[in-house]
Amino acid sequence: MVLRVEKLCLRISGDGSPVFDGVSFDLDEGELGYVSGPQGAGKTLLGLTLCGYLHLWVGSWNLDGTIELLGQQIEQVDRFTETGVILENPFTQLSGMKRTVLHELAFPLESRGVEPGEMPPVIERYADLFGIQHLLGRNVRTLSGGELQRVLFAASLMTAPRFLFLDRPFTEIDAGFRPELLRIIREHLRETGSTALIAEDPWLLPDCRFDREISLGPHDGEQATAPCPERSVRSRKKPSSGETILDVKNLSFGYEDDTPVLDSLSFSLDGGDIALVTGPNGSGKTTLAKLLAGILHPDSGEIVLTGRSITAMDDWEIMAAVGLSLQDPGLHLCRKTVGEELELAKAWGNDPGPFVGLLGLDRLIDRHPLELSQAEKKRLGMALACGDRRRLIILDEPTQYQDDEGFRRMVEAVGVHADEGRAVLIITHDPRVHEAFPEAGIIRL
Questions:
Q1: What is the pLDDT of residues 317-367, one digit of tens each?
Q2: In angstroms, how far apart are the furthest CA atoms of the chain?
Q3: I need a surface site. Which of 7, 52, 209, 303 has the fewest CB within 10 A?
Q4: Can you tell me the distance from the alpha carbon of 211 to that of 181, in angstroms, rounded to the nearest whole number?
């Protein structure tokens, strides 16, 4: 038996109700478990508790029950080298000390005291396994979310922890690689006699069977907002404004000396259009978003926004016309409360207006933005991109981390934008988005 959990109950100080209660299960060598539950049910905190990392995330708590790893009881103040975690947001798990992917992969081996001469074959094996050999010389800060997630998988598995908690690890991974990733995980567990627990959205893991399934109940505060009405975007008719919002002509771009990420890409969007950008990890989806928002500049080609070349517009003009919701929502945030973030957007002339309530942010006004869940941060980032003057809205993986309620709210917000004659570009790996917008155009990279 690798992991045994008995009657685990967690309470966070200041909150009388338990985050989770009565959690009991076993995981044996080679077994893969799955934890499910609505947003706020405590899946992330359960995983961190099982790893002994609770004290790194929570200031004060009360924990009852027992956790045994390899027969040894885990206490939250101990340091365990036999546990590991892949965090929900891959952008927060970089070491912060290494520049390239190669050195990032070497870091966990260095931390374990592996001799330098023994590292290259280990790194080579896992880079090949996760298809990231071509990224070894890349700056980690230039990776897409999916590429970074693959790097983190390689870094985590190469140290062979006996228990590994995977917190929504598939949200950044393209659909084509998800089955292969599950196969790699299962094979690794069998080879090393380890075990793992996955917390993930069920629509990203269709038809998958697990050795154990742990279900956590709804959190008391789960329905703090009124339900968002269902919206049938299938029957929505595009406004016939005839205005071309965006015209992309033969766009090409590459990082440093790499092969071009985008090569002679052309497409256009009219007012009321919704377009979905799809493609495997590293195909240039986020890069395209940054080019359209003026953050990056193309090597060749032209971007025409509302009849003007983007090269003829200054930064303020571009920012006034283009709203970008970033893949890493934390990059949007710079104020002490959600209310201050929204007021700042309004002061810059892009008032989110009705989208604050539509996205369920009205109950979060006094919260610190960095205290929000990833799902809430995503919705806040979308609201900040939804200024009333903007003509093009770019949403980079907006539905990541969203439960059904959050997803419906985002679908409604996108529909409102399109109905008002704006163009909406959505970068997504989420199969639910394709189902919600069957009339959307597809841009495959």
A1: 999 999 999 988 888 889 999 999 999 999 888 899 999 999 999 999 999
A2: 69
A3: 209
A4: 17
Report the distance separating Cα 344 and Cα 90, nearest Å.
27
Concatenated DSSP letters for 343-411?
A: HHHHHTT---TTHHHHTT-GGGTTS-GGGS-HHHHHHHHHHHH--TT-SEEEEESTTTT--HHHHHHHH
Show the 3-state SS of 68-126. Answer: EECCEECCCCCCCCCEEEECCCHHHCCCCCCCEHHHHHHHHHHHCCCCHHHHHHHHHHH
Which tokens hold the place of 269?
A: 């969007």
Please report the domains of the chain, with CATH numbers, ordered by start residue: 3-215 (3.40.50.300), 233-444 (3.40.50.300)
Any idea what DSSP says for residue 41?
S
* Span 215-224, average pLDDT: 55
| Amino acid, single-letter form, for residue 21 | D
- Cβ atoms of 140 and 104 closer than 8 Å: yes
Q: What's the mean per-residue pLDDT of the chain?
A: 89
SS3 content of the chain, % helix, strand, coil (to 5): 35, 25, 40
**Tell me, what's the pLDDT at 218?**
60
Three-class DSSP category at 322 = strand
Q: What residues are paired with 84 via a beta bridge?
A: 164
Name the token pair of 288: 């395209």
**Tokens read off for 119:** 């590292």
Please identify which residue in the block is written with the tokens 């399934």.
213
